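To make the argument concrete, we let one protein speak, a sequence paired with a row of structure tokens, as a model reads it:
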Amino acid sequence: MRLRRLAWAGLEIEAGGQTAVIDLVEDFPSLHGERPPTVEMPPSPPTGTIELGLLTHLHSDHTDAAALSRALASAGLVLRPPAQTGTAQEVALVEGPEAALRAGCLPTRVCEPWETVDVGTFAVSALPAVDGFGDPQVSWCAAAEGCRILHAGDTMFHGWWWLMALRHGPFDAVFLPCGGAVVDLPARQPKSPFAAGMEPREAAVAARLLGARLVVPIHYGPLHEAPNYIQVDDPAGTVLAAAEDLGVAAKLMRPGEMLNLEPTSTAT
């Protein structure tokens, strides 16, 4: 299995001659304003080459319908969590991406937590996750060629780690959010003073509870700025230090960097 870190939380997975992506996003200028973080933008997958697109949730920094439509092969499929329902304010954070998915007529399938789907060479399982704003979210376990990884979107810390390890472990590598951002959004008021996703030490602890052989920090960096999105200082570096204290192997992957996993569960 070959993995390539994409922008922000994105990940590309190659195995058995097929390719999957998780949380592929290309439209960063619309999120970042006049100063898109070009240093964080590695080349995207070539057009029409992706057999499987996985969405952890439908926030705009994780769901880019145009990018998926461009990259997806003619027989490709997009797997996603259930839709948020409710009033206009309740669905405000997912309304745009949901509308874009509908407009793009992308072939999608909803997966409930603990559901496993086989797509080509990949066996993927939607595992429990908890969104910082109450919108549906899943983590994705992807297995192929004797390797198994977990991608946790931008979940908060929760109590499913042990069951995930028991039911779907061992994990050769886990890709965990670590920005620990405190977020102020009009649709979610009053503002919470607590982080809307995992903090760095929480990510290291989650990796240990999962029994992961390797943890890679994701979902941190220059995408958002104060005053509406305030991350902790040095998220990735803190994950590496905390993981070392816990006896968990950790690796910093820059956007565009590759990771090779072997069936013997060694990573290079």
About this structure: The first strand starts at residue 2 and ends at 5. The chain is about 20% helix and 25% strand.
